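Before any further analysis, backbone shapes were mapped to integers, which produced the following:

***
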Amino acid sequence: MSTETCRTGALSCTACNTYNCSKLNKEFPAFCLTTISRQGGDITQQIEEVTALYREDPFVSKIARAAAEIEGEYYGKYTRAEEIVAFAKRIEAKKVGIATCGGLINEAKIFVKILTKQGLESFSVMCKVGAVHKAAIGIEAKYIRAPRGSHVSICNPVLQAKLLNQEGTDLNVVIGLCVGHDALFTKYSTAPVTTLIAKDRVLGHNPAAALYTTCSYYKKLVREENE
């Protein structure tokens, strides 16, 4: 059981070691979210309502079925970039929006070439669009990594989303937006959003590496705050 679980007393999926919800070949733990509502009682009605969405809601049904089909057909065969292309085609997307970090603009250009070769239209917006100075939104000077007096633009995920909304994109792809900026982009995007690259400047944009090395190089991540 994790330290965080012990602190909060809220048992959830990361406290489970049976995962019976996957194949129904074991026993559900007493706290399982498949059987017990966090508000108490039976969660069956909520599960049925959500399942009905997957069956009956045109948007939810299209996305859910396409995702399951891509997983089932290309599991362990396709890279993330290939999966996104296949997914876009499966949901009949015509125009793919790209919200890219300026630091990964070259990767975005390569992805545009891939989309074009696959017969998909694209439209990209870089994070610095709008050229709004960081000081204009109240960011203190100590957080601006540039010589004093020089112009440093904010990352502008809300404008990225709005511009892609205006373009009428059918699917938006995040390429390396900063933590938090990706959250704002997703909130304001009209089209569904998926991620090609999750930014991690330290680990070459492979954030999972920190989790895999918590027993070695990144032990500090699982130490108590006061250690």
In short: Confidence is low (pLDDT under 50) at residues 1-8. The first strand starts at residue 95 and ends at 100. Residues 57-92 form one domain. Strands lie at 95-100, 121-126, 171-175, 193-197.
